[in-house]
Amino acid sequence: MTDFETPVDDLSEAPAVKPGKPIAWPLGLAGVALVIVGAFLSWSYDGQILNDLSVNFYPNGLQNLAIILAVLSLVLLLAEKGPLVKLGSWVDATLGLRALGLGLVLYMVLVLIAISIESDGLINVNPGGYVTLVGAALIAASAWMLPLHQLRDMSEARMPAWFEILSIAFLMAALLFTAAYTLAQDEAWPLILCLVFAGTAATALFRSGVMSFVGHAGQRHRKVLTLAAFAAAFLFPFTQNGDDTNMSIAGAVLVFSATAMGLNIVVGLAGLLDLGYIAFLGSGAYVAATLSTSAFATIGWKPPFLVVVLVGACVAATLGLIIGSPTLRVSGDYLAIVTLGFGEIFRFSMFNLDGNNGPNLTNGPNGIPGIPDLELFGFNFGTDHTIAGIDLTRNSNYYFLLLLLIGGVILAFSRLNNSRIGRGWVAIREDEKAAEAMGVNVFGLKLLAFAIGAFLAGMAGTVKAHQDGAVSPDQYIFLESAFLLAAIVLGGMGTIVGVLLGATILKVLPEKLRFFLEYRLLLFGLLLVLMMRFRPEGLVASRRRKLEFHEEDEALAVAVEEERLIAAEEAK
Amino acid sequence: MTVTETQDVAARPIGDPVLEASGVTMRFGGLLAVNDVNLTVREGEIVGLIGPNGAGKTTFFNCLTGLYKPTSGQVRFSGTPLPPKPRAVVRAGMARTFQNIRLFANMTALENVMVGRYCRTSAGALTSVLHGPKFRREEAATRARAQELLEFVGLGRSTEHLARNMPYGDQRRLEIARALATDPKLILLDEPTAGMNPQETRQASDLIFKIRDSGLSVVVIEHDMRFIFNLCDRVLCLVQGSALIEGTPEEVQSDPRVIEAYIGTGEDDEDEGPQDDVPGGEV
Ligand SMILES: Nc1ncnc2c1ncn2[C@@H]1O[C@H](COP(=O)(O)OP(=O)(O)OP(=O)(O)O)[C@@H](O)[C@H]1O
Ligand SMILES: [Mg+2]
C-alpha cells in the first residue's frame, strides 16, 4: 500500500539506514558453513584439555557452543534474504549478526589461546580450530557489509498467544540450560568460554530485537512469564544431579538476591542510601543461631523455626526502626555515613558480646557453629532425597526453601511498588519537599522503608544461619553491604529482574572464578566504573530510569512514551 | 459557593471564613521577609496576592502551608488553629502549587495525581502486600479520582505521560490537579500562569473560575495584573514583607502606592493607572 512507499524522507532522515554490499550475504553463508565444518573437525591435538576437543567428526562441548552460535547466525542470514525474509522486517539481522560474528571471533581466539597455554604453544591447535576461526571472521566481515534497515516497531509485533507463550518458555529453558551448563564447568577456561558464549548469544538476542519481542510478549502474559521464570528456577536443582557445590552457590545467590531485593526498597524506591544493610541480614542470622539447638547457642528458648523466622525478622525490623528514627531526619550523605557506622557497630557488638564484656550472646569472634539442619513438618533439610531418579542434596533442600522465600520477597516488593505506599516512596525520592507539601508522611514512609527492608533481610538471615551451619561476625563486614549496593546499581535500581541479575552475577562470578579472587575488588570496581560510564541505568533499566540518564535521546523518549500509551490502552 | 462568574462581584454572598491568618511574621536572620501580615479568605472567594519581586509572597505561602514555621503569628483554618506542619495543613484542607514547578518528574501524570490522594487514603504496607478486596477497591477509587481530576484540568489525554516530558503549561495544570487531589477547601496557587502565552493564560483563568465554582476558595499569586484584576474578588498587595493595601480590584488598581511600589519612581505616574504588564512579568 501507499503507506509503505510514502515515508521516503523518513528513511533518508534515519541514520540507521545504509545500503549493503551484494557479496555480504554469500560471504556470511560461507562463514556459517566453515564454522560448522570446523567444529566437526578436531581443534586440539591434546585430548586432555578443554574437555577433549581432539576427536574428528564428534563435536564436543565447546565445539557445540560454536555450532549453536553458527546456527543462530544462519537464522539471521535467512531472515535477511531467504525463506525467513518476513522475519527480517521485524528483526535487525545485521546488528544481531555483528554481535554473533564478533562474539564468535572472540570465542575462537580465546579457544586458541587456551589451547596454546594449556598445552605447549599454537602447534597444538589442529586445523579445525583455524577453520572455525576463519568462518567466524567471515561472519563478522559479512555482518559489517550487510545493509542496515529501518525496522518496524517491535511493540506492534503480534503473534498468536501460544507462540508468545512458547517463546517465553523457550527463553527460560535456554536460560536454565545455559546456567546449568556454565555452572557445570569446573575449570577456568571452559567456564570463561561458556560466559563468552552466553554473553554473545544474549547480546545478539538483544541487538536483533528478539529480546524486545519476548519483553513485549512478557508484558502481555505477565503471569506466564512469572510462572515460567519460577519453573526454570525450580527445575535448576534437577539439572545438577547431586552436585552439592553448585547448589550451595545457588543457595548463596538466593540469600544474596533476597537481601538485595529488600535493600532495593530502601535504595531503589525510597532513594535512601544505606551502607550498613548487611547488619540486618546478620541480626536475623544471629537470632536464628542463638535460638537454635546448637550446643553453642546462648538462649534456652527453642521455638519452632517459623517462630524463629518471625522473631528474627522482627528483631531486624526493630533495629531498623532504632537506627532509622534518629537518622532519617538527616538526608543524603549523612544518612550514608550513619548507616555505615551502624553496620560496623553491629559487627563489633557481635564480636564483643562474648561474656567478657556484658552478657554472652554471640560467643564473640568464634561465633556460633554447629547449627543443626532445619526440620520442617517432618522434612529434614540435612538429608538427600531422590526424586525421579535425580539426587537432591542438602543444599537443594535449602534452595527450594529459599526459592519460596524470594518468591515472597518479590511479591511483597512488586505489590508495595504498585501501591499508595510505593508511590509515596517514589515521590519522596523524586522531590521530598513537594511530597511533604502534598501530605505524604515523609518521615514515616522513610522509616517504613527501613523497617520493611530490614524485616525482609532478617527473614533471609534466619534461613542463612541454618544453611551455613554457623554464624560469625566476619560474615557481616562492610564489603558485603557494598556488594549488595553494587548488585542493585549494576542490575538496575528499583527493578526486580535487574536486581536479581545483578545479585546473581556478583555472587556467581567470584565463586566460580576463584583464580581472580585476589583481583575481585579491582575487577568489580572497574566493572562499576564502566557501568556508570556506559549504562548508568543498570543492566535492566526500568524504562523510566533509562530516560533519566539519557535525556538527550529524543527517539528513546518518544519510544518510551508510545510504549506506555500502548500499555495503558491494553490495560483498559 | 456555586456563584458563577457572570454574577456581579458585589452581589456575591459572603461565606464563612476558611482561612484566617493574623500577624504572620517571618524573619530570616536580619531580613524581615513577611511582616505582620493578616489575611482572611472566605468560602468561594478568589483572593489575589500581588507585590513586586522579593515582596515575600512565596514566603507567606510557605508560612501558611507549614513549609516554614513563622517567627510569629497564627493561622486558623475553618476556625481551628493550624500547626505549622505540611501534613496537618493538607489534611485540614489547604493545598498548594509551587512557583517553580515541583512535580515528581519521573512519575506519570496519573501517578503524580495519585500521590495527591495519599492523605485521603489509608492502605498500609500490610494491606498492600495482602492485596485484599479492600485494598483493590481503594486503589481503583484512587485511580478513578485521579483520572477525573486530570480530565477536570484538561489533561485527560496525557495520563500516561511522564511529568518531565509534558509541555510547560500542562505541567502547571498537572500541579493544580495534584493539589486538588488532596480534597482541599482552599487552594494556594503560586504564579500559575508564569511562562504561559495569552491563550494558556486565558485557559488558566477559566480553570480557576471552574475550581471556585466547584466550591473551593482560591488564593493566587500573580504578576500579570490583567489576569489578577479580572479574576479576583479581593486583592492583597505586599511590599517588602508588609501589607500595603487590601481591597477590591478596583480599589487596589487605583491606589497610587501600588503603582509606586511597582514602578519604584514617584508622583508622575500616579494618574496613569497600572498597566497589565508593568511589574516585571518574567518569573
Ligand atoms: N529560605 C530563605 N532564607 C533566606 N531568605 C529567604 C528565604 N526564602 C526567601 N527569602 C528572602 O525573602 C524575600 C522574599 O522572597 P519571596 O520568594 O517570598 O518573594 P516573592 O514575593 O515570592 O518574589 P517573586 O515575585 O520573585 O516570586 C526575598 O528577599 C528572599 O531572598
Ligand atoms: Mg515567589
UniProtKB/TrEMBL annotation, chain A:
Cellular compartment(s): Cell membrane
Transmembrane residue ranges: 23-45, 57-79, 99-117, 129-149, 161-183, 189-210, 222-240, 246-270, 277-299, 305-322, 398-416, 437-461, 481-503, 515-534
Domain of life: Bacteria
Keyword Membrane recorded: yes
Membrane topology: Multi-pass membrane protein
Cellular component annotations (GO), alphabetically ordered: plasma membrane
Transmembrane is among the record's keywords: yes
Keyword line: Cell membrane, Membrane, Transmembrane, Transmembrane helix
Gene Ontology MF, one: branched-chain amino acid transmembrane transporter activity
Main localization of the protein described in the UniProt heading: membrane
PANTHER family to which the protein is assigned, alphabetical: HIGH-AFFINITY BRANCHED-CHAIN AMINO ACID TRANSPORT PROTEIN BRAE (PTHR30482:SF10), HIGH-AFFINITY BRANCHED-CHAIN AMINO ACID TRANSPORT SYSTEM PERMEASE (PTHR30482)
Protein name: Branched-chain amino acid ABC transporter permease
UniProtKB/TrEMBL annotation, chain B:
Origin: domain of life: Bacteria
InterPro entries: AAA+_ATPase, ABC_AA/LPS_Transport, ABC_transporter-like_ATP-bd, BCA_ABC_TP_C, P-loop_NTPase
Pfam families assigned to the protein according to its UniProt record, in alphabetical order: ABC_tran, BCA_ABC_TP_C
Taxonomic path: Bacteria, Bacillati, Actinomycetota, Actinomycetes, Propionibacteriales
Skewed-composition ranges (Acidic residues): 266-275
Region: Disordered, residue numbers: 263-283
GO cellular component: plasma membrane
Protein name, UniProt field: ABC transporter ATP-binding protein
GO biological process: D-alanine transmembrane transport; L-alanine transport; L-isoleucine import across plasma membrane; L-valine import across plasma membrane
Keywords carried by this UniProt record: ATP-binding, Nucleotide-binding, Transport
PANTHER family, per database record: AMINO ACID ABC TRANSPORTER ATP-BINDING PROTEIN (PTHR45772:SF7), CONSERVED COMPONENT OF ABC TRANSPORTER FOR NATURAL AMINO ACIDS-RELATED (PTHR45772)
One of the record's GO molecular function terms: L-phenylalanine transmembrane transporter activity
Start and end residues of each ABC transporter domain: 19-265
